[in-house]
Amino acid sequence: MFTGIVQGVTEVAELEQKTNLSTLALNLPEPARQGLQVGASVAINGVCLTVTHWQDERVYFDAMIETLRLTNLGQLQVGSRVNYERAARISDEIGGHLMSGHVIDQVTLTGRQEMDENNLRLEFSVPSTWMKYIFPKGYIGLNGCSLTIAEVGEQSFSVYLIPETRRATTFGEMPEGTPVNLEVDPQTQVTVDTVERVLAQRGLA
Q1: Going from the N-terminus, what domains does the chain have, and what CATH number goes with each?
Q2: Around Cβ 116, how many Cβ atoms within 10 Å?
Q3: Are 197 and 189 in contact (CB under 8 A)?
Q4: Tens of pLDDT along 118-137?
Q5: Model confidence over 75-98: pLDDT tens digits?
Q6: What is the greatest pairwise CA distance in the chain?
Q7: 3-state SS string over the chain?
Q8: Strand-pair partners of 114
Q9: What is the pLDDT, as a whole number, of residue 174?
Q10: What are the helix and strand counts (H, E) for the chain?
């Protein structure tokens, strides 16, 4: 599990594309490598990946075909900047909301609006399939970052970023048109799906 509090931004140092598989390497700083073991989980742009090996500061991961198809990891190149977060430990403070690292789809950044010197508003377009899980003041996972939803449209939503979020993630420099990994709040998803199932069983949906 992850907290949705991105620990840093780094660049893709190596990328080897094979048949239905990509191996990527990230240069992680020393604090992010403390206690690292083969098999450990790290969220890269919100996608839970497993450490396969490392050499010095360079840590390697494999991404399978479904991950490459469903997420923006399939569009990475050497030099691409990504958010990262180590898996949470029992003693960690959950400053965001619990996230699984299981991305369900991608959304697209369609608008950037500088509200003032301290607030940046980002708007995203969303496939209609997922809109039922998106509510004002609810949680959303975007490229591994836990954010609070502000406004919700028919097929869009917006979030507001404080300076620290802009500094610590790739959102501060992200241009319009960028695909972003989406993870909806699992509790919201379970609640909505359960209500839909109950209503359908009663012939009310």
Answers
A1: 8-86 (2.40.30.20), 105-198 (2.40.30.20)
A2: 6
A3: no
A4: 889 999 999 999 999 999 99
A5: 999 999 999 999 877 666 666 667
A6: 60
A7: CECCCCCEEEEEEEEEEECCEEEEEEECCHHHHCCCCCCCEEEECCEEEEEEEEECCEEEEEEEHHHHHHCHHHHCCCCCEEEEEECCCCCCCCCCCCECCCCCEEEEEEEEEEEECCEEEEEEECCHHHHHHCCCCCEEEECCEEEECCCECCCEEEEEECHHHHHHCHHHHCCCCCEEEEEECHHHHHHHHHHHHHHHHCCCC
A8: 120
A9: 95
A10: 4, 12
Amino acid in the structure at residue 88:
A
Q: Which residues pair with 41 in a beta bridge?
A: 50
Other beta carbons less than 10 A from residue 9's beta carbon: 16
Mean pLDDT of 164-189: 93
Q: Taking the chain, what is the end-to-end CA distance rounded to the nearest angstrom?
A: 33
> What is the structure's pLDDT at 47?
97
**In this structure, which amino acid lies at residue 189?**
Q
